[in-house]
Amino acid sequence: MGMDTTEYDKRQVLALHKQWWKANVGLDIPAMRECFPSGNAFSMFNRNSFTYFGIDEVTKLWQHFIDTDIPPRLTQTVAVLRIEARADTAWVISELTYRRVAPVQTERHWENPDVDQTFGSKATEIYHRDNGAGVPEWKMWHFQSGPLQPFEEPRPAFDDTLTDRGLGGNPYGEPITYTFTLDRPA
After folding, report:
1. Residues 6+ apart with CB under 8 A from 20
2. pLDDT per residue over 59-79, tens digit each?
3. Residue 111 DSSP label
4. What span, in angstroms and rounded, lies between the C-alpha atoms of 66 and 149?
5. Strands of the sheet with 118-129, listed across from one edge
6. How far apart are the first and last CA of the chain?
């Protein structure tokens, strides 16, 4: 007996989600561009607090990071808390931590300069089964990211911490967790 349509759709969305996060590790622009619909259909509330519209703006942002020598992510661990797919729409929520290869320069980036610091983010991704030209292919239509709270900061009203809960800890079940490491030439 074959897989039901919902599980098949979730697997397709999860594969696209992983491609997006893997592209983030090495700023792989061609792989990133494959994740989004054509034209200006995509919108992003970036972790840097700015909003970007369409695949060309995100490409220009990443090219800016490459051109200004923003250090790439060395490792990144992503924990998917929840993935849902219904008809032609799906969404994913995740938490992640990542480390940089070299110190970040604060005048060019939003993160604190410290080579040994691990940064944390949380993200929501919205997918639609439309490639931007009406072809029924899963693409990410919206992305929103923000910083995770400090690992030892108590959560208001509950007094537990991210360290207590663990990355991706949630009431929905075990998170889907994976790590990408930047492939560096020898």
Report:
1. 32, 35, 125, 140, 143
2. 999 999 888 877 667 788 999
3. S
4. 27
5. 51-53, 43-45, 138-147, 118-129, 89-100, 73-86, 176-181
6. 46
Which of 99, 182, 93 minimizes the C-alpha distance to 145?
A: 93
Q: Tokens 């889907």 appear where?
A: 176
Long-range contacts of 4-9 (CB under 8 A, 24+ apart): 6/85, 6/86, 9/85, 9/90, 9/129, 9/138
Contacts of 177 (CB under 8 A, 6+ apart): 77, 78, 79, 80, 167, 168
105: pLDDT confidence band, cut at 50, 70 and 90? low
What 8-state DSSP symbol labels residue 146?
A: E
pTM of the model: 0.87
Closest among 40, 120, 42 to 76, alpha carbons compared:
120
The position carrying tokens 């259909």 is 41
Token pair listed for 53:
């519209």
